[in-house]
Amino acid sequence: MLRTSSRAPNGRARPRAAPPVMPWGVRRSLLSAANDVRLKAREVLFHAGDAGDGCYFLRDGVVKAAVVAKDGQERLLAVLGPGSLIGELSLFDDQPRSATISALKPCSLWHMSKGSFFRLADANPQVYREALKILTRRLRQTNDSMVAQGTVTVAGRVARAFASLAQGLGEGRGNGMILLPNKITQNDIAGMAGVARENASRAINDLLRDGILAREGSFYVIARPDELADMAEI
């Protein structure tokens, strides 16, 4: 929903990272071995710590990835939309699930067991290539987040969190505004931005005061997406 590039300090466009999705052609080749899974809003797909039994392709809907911090509060890590590959890490490292995945909207997914995935990938090496691209993009995003913690201001990191939510959840308005039609808490933003809740609260209040964000009932509205993108440096 946000624009796809901003301006780097040298004046040239800075490309925005592509979402971690698998091309439709590759996904279609996997469907013969996949099982259909349906989730209601707020239903959990799997919990952090569960054994990994395969991966999922999100066909329709929106899910969130979250963990529970030491203080018992949920920390939102990411919002994923249609086309996303979910749970692929456990395919390769045999470790438990690293986050809890739950539906923000009704979702339709395909589930593929580990054995089925590798049998098909062995027969079609493009599956491996596309999975590697997804893992690489996620690694780059993690690296970018780590760099941002030392080089990007709190306001910029909070803006990045809202920009990420807009990509997964945003509903466009005719006036160019973007509605986030799910209740997003300050803890959610703090967790995504990697900042203390108090700092996230101050940054959000500044965005509201400056008119970059607005409220529509209990929901946030990105009133000036271009300015948010500039703050987020995307």
TrEMBL record:
It holds the Pfam family cNMP_binding. The keyword Cytoplasm does not apply. Keywords: DNA-binding, Transcription, Transcription regulation. One of its GO terms (cellular component) is cytosol. Residues 27-138 form the Cyclic nucleotide-binding domain. Residues 1-20 are annotated as: Disordered. It comes from Aestuariivirga litoralis. This is Crp/Fnr family transcriptional regulator.
